[in-house]
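Hi V.,

You were right to ask for the full record rather than a summary. Here it is.
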Amino acid sequence: MLTQFKASIGVLVGIAALVMGSAANAQTPEPILGTWRLDVAKSTYKPGPAPKSSILTIEPAGKGLKIAIDAVNADGSPFKWGFTTLRDGKEEAPVTGNAMFDVVTATRESATAGTNVYKKAGKVVMTTKGAISADGKVMTLTSTGTDPKGQAIHNVAVYTK
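Predicted structure:
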C-alpha cells in the first residue's frame, strides 16, 4: 500500500501539466494539449519509488482542460486518475481516482508555466509547478509537499511529447 501510495505521488506531478498553455490563438493550439510520456530516467522521486511509467493525456473540455493520468506504479499495479479544471486559480476541481487528493486549484501563470495546488480535507498536501520548453516537446514538473506519513516529497518529473 505504501509503495503504491509513494508511486502515486510521483505520478501526481503529471497533473501540473494542466496549468500551462499558449496564448490564445485560434490557429496555434496550446502546447500542453496532447499525450505526454514520463521519461523515468531523467526524473527524480524523493522519497520514491518512481512509477514504472506514466502517460498524461490533456485535452480541451469547454473553457478548461481534462487531465487523465494512466500510470503503472513501482509495484506493477495500475493507477488511473484525473480531473477537469478551468485553470483560473479560483476553482477547486474535484480529483477522481487518487486517494491523496480531494481537489486541485490550477493557475495558468504564463503561456508555458503554471501551478497546481492539491488539497485533502481542506489542507494543502502538494504544490506542483510546471514549465514547457520553448520547442513544446518537454514538460518539467516539480512537486513539493508531504505524504500521509509526514515525509517530505520533492519530485522532478520530465515528460516528453
